[in-house]
């Protein structure tokens, strides 16, 4: 693409050099730069990309986009330098332009929040496909271009990969695209330039404080998705979360609310519940769904609200909701022939762990649904915390898990570059001496899960929390195959 056409997407502060040059490719990783490429230099969190400008010029880069003017002191002949206000934002805008502005050729809907994003985006994708439309999905678990799956690298990929995916969806004839929008992707401007037909907010609890530093920063970053919506778009928000209306207070979009507790545009409640599903009332209509938990009622209401905003008919939406299956690693049940149940769930924040544990206990203590011997039924929870992430939530998660379980087993999650023993020490710091005496600490996750299975009796429930769909563990920077499902099924 000719540079003059490409930079129509941005507002350069200064251009030094020719704009009639042909750009071969856009790069933000200096290691990938080849002759004729445009390199976008970003400050980054660990390394400043501006320091690689000289090496990129040596490799043959014909265009340098930068936001630090001090690097204009040493320009080279034959290279065009484009100074912008924000390099990260410029990368998103340039990527969108490079791939033919794909979000304008799709009905693109984003979902943000701490918990529930994967379930909502995935089930909306499955719903519109069940209605006969082609659709794409960008999620933590997997990326889909119509029916073709691609491995997921991030909840929201980098700007180039993201726009390339959207362009693939357009080429495949997709009419809809549903994507999880992470707080990192908003902060790093990966979604700059995208045209959203609508956005949804799930909830906000403690997460990623290691990156955002404060909860307010985390909240305000999420809010930017709604601030950027056009007046023709829709915004669906959770009225049960105190941050729900904060998200939409400055949006130009049409706002719709959902709730399980108070007045809202769309309301829902549980009529009956078991480990295999719930009978719900949604806007006065009864519907059975094969998902479990109060948190999933909110997720389903969000999906229902968005589907109506997209123009789908209420009866058809409810019919398809009743047939949707749980997402991989989200409250997945595995039944043992010995009568106990294992639940695999991605819960890795204090709020998510509490929601799942409360749901399990509500079902266990429901007189109309519990098994005959459930007076003695117990919940055995296996949980850990990831390394190189927010340390403040570790004691909180241990406290919540201990409070709601009859047996707690603390173990490793993804230790990454930290020592597993150090992570477990942070978790046990949240427990009293009496609580510690009745808590098992087993560093090896497979052994921890096997121990839980050994302890389980008929009617018991084992919660294996934290990894959900993930089929790996990262230990000292090395990714090893590990799947919670496989460990449970092998034991059975």
Task: Give the tags.
UDP-N-acetylmuramoyl-L-alanine:D-glutamate ligase, 492 residues, alpha/beta, 6-stranded mixed beta sheet, 22% strand, Protein-Tyrosine Phosphatase, Chain A, Udp-n-acetylmuramoylalanyl-d-glutamate--2,6- Diaminopimelate Ligase, Chain: A, domain 1
Mean pLDDT: 93
| CATH homologous superfamily caption of the largest domain | Mur-like, catalytic domain
Named at the architecture level, the CATH assignment of the largest domain is 3-Layer(aba) Sandwich
> How many helices in DSSP terms?
17
By DSSP, the count of extended strands is 24
Count of the domains: 3
Say what the CATH topology of the largest domain is. UDP-N-acetylmuramoyl-L-alanine:D-glutamate ligase
Class from helix and strand fractions:
alpha/beta
Radius of gyration using CA atoms only: 24 Å
Low-confidence segments, given as residue ranges, are 367-374
* Percent strand: 15-25%
Structure commentary:
The protein is of the alpha/beta class and 492 residues long. It folds into three domains: 3-85, 3-Layer(aba) Sandwich (Udp-n-acetylmuramoylalanyl-d-glutamate--2,6- Diaminopimelate Ligase, Chain: A, domain 1); 99-321, 3-Layer(aba) Sandwich (UDP-N-acetylmuramoyl-L-alanine:D-glutamate ligase); 332-491, Mur ligase, C-terminal domain (Protein-Tyrosine Phosphatase, Chain A). The strands form four sheets. An eleven-stranded mixed beta sheet has the order 9-8-7-10-6-11-12-13-14-15-16, with helices on both faces. Strands 17-18-22-19-20-21 form a six-stranded mixed beta sheet, sandwiched between helices. Helix 3 (87-98) packs parallel to helix 5 and helix 10 packs antiparallel against helix 11 (314-321).
């Amino acid at each position: 693409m000719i540079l003059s056409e490409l930079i129509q997407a941005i507002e350069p502060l200064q251009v030094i050099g020719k704009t009639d040059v042909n750009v071969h490719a856009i790069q933000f990783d200096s290691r990938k730069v080849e002759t004729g490429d445009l390199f976008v230099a970003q400050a980054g969190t660990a390394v400043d990309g501006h320091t690689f400008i000289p090496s990129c010029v040596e490799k043959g880069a014909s265009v340098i986009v930068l936001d630090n003017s001090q690097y204009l002191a040493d320009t080279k002949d034959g290279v065009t330098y484009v100074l912008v206000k924000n390099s990260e934002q410029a990368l998103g805008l340039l990527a969108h332009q490079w791939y033919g502005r794909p979000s304008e050729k799709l009905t693109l809907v984003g979902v943000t929040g701490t918990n529930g994003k994967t379930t909502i985006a995935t089930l909306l994708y499955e719903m519109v496909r069940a209605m006969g439309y082609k659709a794409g999905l960008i999620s933590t678990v997997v990326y889909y271009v119509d029916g073709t799956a691609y491995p997921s690298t991030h909840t929201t990929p980098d700007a180039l990969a993201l726009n390339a995916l959207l362009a693939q969806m357009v080429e495949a004839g997709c009419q809809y695209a549903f994507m999880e929008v992470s707080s990192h992707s908003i902060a790093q401007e990966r979604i700059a330039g995208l045209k959203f037909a609508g956005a949804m907010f799930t909830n906000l609890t403690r997460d990623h404080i290691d990156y955002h530093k404060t909860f307010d920063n985390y909240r305000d970053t999420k809010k930017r998705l709604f601030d950027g919506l056009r007046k023709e778009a829709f915004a669906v928000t959770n009225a049960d979360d105190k941050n729900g209306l904060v998200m939409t207070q400055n949006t130009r979009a049409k706002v719709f609310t959902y709730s399980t507790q108070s007045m809202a545009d769309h309301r829902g409640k549980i009529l009956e519940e078991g480990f295999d599903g719930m009978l719900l009332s949604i806007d006065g209509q009864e519907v059975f769904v094969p998902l479990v938990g109060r948190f999933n009622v909110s997720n389903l209401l969000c999906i229902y609200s968005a589907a109506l905003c997209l123009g789908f008919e209420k009866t058809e939406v409810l019919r398809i909701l009743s047939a949707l299956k749980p997402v991989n690693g989200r409250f997945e049940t595995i039944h043992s022939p010995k009568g106990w149940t294992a639940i695999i769930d991605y819960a890795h924040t204090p709020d998510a762990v509490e929601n799942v544990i409360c749901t399990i206990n509500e079902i266990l203590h429901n007189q109309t649904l519990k098994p005959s011997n459930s007076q003695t039924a117990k919940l055995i929870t296996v949980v850990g915390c990831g390394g190189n992430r927010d340390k403040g939530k570790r004691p909180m998660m241990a406290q919540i898990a201990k409070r709601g379980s009859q047996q707690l087993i603390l173990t490793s999650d993804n230790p990454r570059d930290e020592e597993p023993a150090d992570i477990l020490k942070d978790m046990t710091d949240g427990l009293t001496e009496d609580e510690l005496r009745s808590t098992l600490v087993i560093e090896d996750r497979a052994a921890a899960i096997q121990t839980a299975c050994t302890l389980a009796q008929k009617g018991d429930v084992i919660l294996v929390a934290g990894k959900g769909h993930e089929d790996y563990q990262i230990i000292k920077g090395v990714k090893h195959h590990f799947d919670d499902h496989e460990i449970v099924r092998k034991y059975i």
